[in-house]
Task: structure prediction
Amino acid sequence: MFIQILLVLLISGYQIRAKESFVLPSDLAQFLDRIGRVHRLHAITIVNSVGSVSPSYLDELHRGLMRNISNHFYLLPQMTATDEDFSPMRFSRLQDEETVYLVFAKDSMDAVIQLQAQRARGRRYSKTLFLLRKQESYQDLERFFKLLWTLQFRSALVVVASEKFYQMDPYPTIRIIRMRRLSAYDPHHLFPPPNRRNFGGYTIRLPVQQDVPNTFWYQNRRTKAWQLEGLGGILINQLMENLNVTLDMFRFEVNGSLLMNMTALTDLIVQGKVELSPHLYDTLHPNHLVDYSYPAQVAERCFMIPLDNEISRSLYVFLPFSFLLWLCLLFTLLIVEFVFVRRLMPDTHLWAILGVPGAGAARCKNRKPCRSITTFLILGGIFILVQAYSTKLTSFLAVTLTRRPANSLEELFRLPYRILVLPSDVEAIVASLGHAEEFSTKFSFTNPQTFEDKRIGMDPEYIYPISKVRWRFFDLQQRFLRKKRFFFSGICHGSFPYQYQLRVDSHLKDALHRFLLHVQQAGLQEVWLETCFRRAHRMGYLNDFSTLAELEEKLRLRPLALNLLVPAFSLFLCGLVGSGIAFLVEIRQSFGCRQKPPPTNRNPGD
Ligand SMILES: *[C@@H]1O[C@H](CO)[C@@H](O)[C@H](O)[C@H]1NC(C)=O
Ligand SMILES: *[C@@H]1O[C@H](CO)[C@@H](O)[C@H](O)[C@H]1NC(C)=O
Ligand SMILES: *[C@@H]1O[C@H](CO)[C@@H](O)[C@H](O)[C@H]1NC(C)=O
Ligand SMILES: *[C@@H]1O[C@H](CO)[C@@H](O)[C@H](O)[C@H]1NC(C)=O
Result:
């Protein structure tokens, strides 16, 4: 009796063990059936390498999955592919995320793992079951999980030798979890959840290169700690704080230079040394072994052109004589001459009406009201003309006048400056704007260091290509300048998206996308731009020309203003002398008019 009971216990124990392993294909089929039902999956993909699983096992598994109408995957169409057709087709093109992947591998080094990573790109949320045929040592297993994490399989369940089950928890460091009894787990917890909100202090290595205004170093005055700054820097800092991620930042020098080198940065990501780069860069030449975030900025790339179109102040006296004013003057004189002088008062002389001394003295006795009105009208007109001139002149003196800046390609080619570019810029410019020959004579090539130095220092020797966001930042340098150094032209060669670079299927990608959307909706970039400018200025990455502006104010503008007064004052003196003489002549004439009968005043032309 006692022995019998023991036997039953043993048998039942054996039964449980049998169900807890996938030695029998039907057990695996049952397990998959349960997973498919619980998670409402639409598809199942089975991948195997040669020798990783016996064909009979696979046949039995297929049969188990499709056996009867109550099976979850019963109605799915089937597709068989072999590696021979060497198309790099991805599963992700055929299947959505509601898919379970079954990967049979010989051992933890099997190449099928890498193949799966390539083919299921973009499907790292999907549940993936790795079945390793061979027993693995714990060290091998650790290495294997590290590889899985590098390839970003976030929801992976590993089965070793059909009966040992392992999961991982990657945060804060990769931890392997042995699952003793599969049936004891809630089916929702069999696969690790692919996304987490709190990374529990997970550490990522972050390479930092200098790219003002997007990334640069800043030393906090209070804590004396060096921190990442810039539009990209602040965003990454804030995001990582939200996710509870520790940043392990390092200066990434390439060939002795700290300037941004995107080739080197993407190489780091492809080699698996870093997960994310905080640098914003356009994706004109995307690297397909790297993922890109949503565009954090979309900005057009145009030219910044030296502003050398100031009109000399000594020419200001002539400026109010616009074409219209001249025309008015001519028109008035013609009307006066032909309508009034010739028709209405044929025997009067124009100069007398204008009140030129000596001319009208002859007629000082017989004044008609009509003539007085005409005189009044003409004098009024002249008065208005003079007022218009002086108002314009004074308003010109209050500002700095410039000519219209170059805003078309022809005007750009006519400018005496060359365009400073990096060799990599040429293709984009010429492809968009054409005129390859004109541009080829205009371009002046240089290395990134010189280019950055000259552009950020606003060296007025060259024209530079620049994106709108960067221009808005650099433009802050000259905001207090009375005479701006550069202007942003309307000659643009396309809008480019600026994106962050991430490891393929990175676990940071979705969090970054959500965060980018929040930042854009809140308009935080605008606020950060000002903060970044102050910090970049304090760290000496750029100049603020405001101090220079004060200097200019003190040294140049005041003496200039005094100089300006000299011609004005001389003109005033001339006027004074002239009117004095006129006054004297007038007095003499009026005396003469009272004493004698008026002499007939004749004009030489009359
Ligand atoms: C169909 O599946 C149900 C439950 O999964 C099982 O009880 C039944 O025996 C199966 N029928 C056949 C014909 O295999
Ligand atoms: C970040 O993670 C650490 C380690 O798990 C934890 O102690 C800390 O409370 C977390 N911080 C926040 C803000 O959640
Ligand atoms: C490194 O810099 C030196 C000198 O600036 C240059 O000659 C060399 O080509 C550079 N090497 C690489 C790999 O860029
Ligand atoms: C950028 O990095 C690549 C790869 O490391 C290197 O070949 C190239 O010379 C670097 N460019 C510059 C300008 O240093």
Observations:
- Residues 67-68, 70 surround 2-acetamido-2-deoxy-beta-D-glucopyranose (ligand 1) (CB under 6 Å).
- The longest helix spans residues 546-595.
- The chain is about 45% helix and 15% strand.
- The radius of gyration is 43 Å.
